[in-house]
Amino acid sequence: MPIRSLTYRYLLALSLVAGLTIWGQILVQRQLSGQENDSWLVNFAGRQRFQSQAIVKDVLLLTTAASFVDTKQITAELARLLATWERYHIQLRTGKLADLHAQHTNSDTIRAMFLQIRPHFETIRTETHYLLEKSGLSAAEKRQAVDAILAHERQFLSQMDQIVRQYQFEAQQKIEALQRIERILMVVTLLVLFLEALLIFNPVVQTLRANFTQLITARQQAETANEALLEANKTLQQTQQQLLRESGLRHQQQLSEQRIRMASLVQGQEDERRRLSRDLHDGIGQMLTGLKLLVENIRSAQLLPENEQRTYASLKGLVVKIIQETRHVSNNLMPPVLSDFGLEPALRYVAEQSVQQSGLTIRVLSQGADTRLEQSIEIGLYRIAQEALTNAIKHSEATDVEIELRIRENRLLLAVSDNGRGVGPSQGDAVVNGQGLHNMRQRARLMDGVFRLLSQPGQGTRIVVTIPLDIEEPKATPSLSDKVKV
Description:
The chain is α+β, with helices and mostly antiparallel strands and 486 residues long. Helix content is 73%, strand content 9%. The chain has 11 helices and 7 strands. It has helices at 3-34, 38-64, 71-94, 108-133, 139-296, 306-333, 336-341, 343-358, 375-394, 428-432, 435-446, and strands spanning 96-97, 102-103, 361-367, 400-408, 411-418, 450-455, 461-468. It has a 5-stranded mixed β-sheet, with helices on one face. A two-stranded antiparallel sheet has the order 1-2. Strand 1 and strand 2 form a beta hairpin. Helix 3 packs antiparallel against helix 4, helix 4 (108-133) crosses helix 5 (139-296) and helix 8 runs parallel beside helix 9. The longest helix has 158 residues, at 139-296.
């Protein structure tokens, strides 16, 4: 069976079932809405008999004038009962159910019954109002009114019984009609389902059976082809794994070679720094020191004219500044305190030098970092801290810098924080991709470490480097008092 034809049949079947369901609901709801107030009608039609009898009883008590009768209480009770009886009777007769906020249409039979009972209702109501509203009636007048009420009360009760039975009969008719509608809907629904099974589901089953047969045959063929594919896939996986291993080894070799080249480059830079530092210290530094001594030993300087004496003093001061600057450059290239005492004293020394030059507040916080490390690690961390401190002084406009060095669980953390302007959106890319940060990242990577830059505009900058350590036995750090001055 074509799929389109099958789809149309399914849609037709579903439409029929949905239509029957909606139509049935409409009919049932219509019948239920017609029966919504039937119980109220039967109930209050029955109460008409009880209330009319209670009215007659109160009228008799009121007119007997017995000593045990409370006339005021009976009068109030009779007035209340009469008003309720009148209101419910009028609502039943007119169909305007004010207490339920609903409207009911009486049948022609019930309307005719209410026309027959109306004279009795009016007589009982009129005579009862007459007894309640007239004071000082004679015994004969009271007796005449009571006789009129009693004469019409029996007819009212009889005809009210007929109205109640008629209400019950009509309600039963509505229930039977609803049952007939439900039976008709059930028969029609079963017929539709039978036709669907005959015209739709049976062809579908036949089509599915043929399709299942084809699927089983195709599955067997697919299993045979799948086995061949599995064999080919297994061979491909083995080849792929071999290629991955070779590619991984080649990539690892490339990384190792790149790291070796970087390490060699950095080591060459450090060796060149060390050589320049030694040359400055041993060569130019010594010559400048000798020049200073020669200048200081000129004995005839006091005999020079005043202008030449000022020139001599300026020359002497310039020589001292050149010696200090040479010493500072030599220490920046390779501070002896780093090789002699370790990383923490070197950081404190560079912080003191930076405070003297910039006037900033620089603190060095250390925790468990009094252990000597490998020379390459100490030099790498010192260069990172030196670069970060230089950036904080020159570019961040900071007033407070903190250098933190902490060793815990064979991991070393170096953090340099400042309270400067931070990295803003305008200069973010230029700063993050700058040469200084690039060098710091490369040095951290050479030490198998992690480099992080944390910064927000107006909230300062924090540079954090974390590297793993393999510390076996701590080595005592020499005292700073043993340091040899440059």
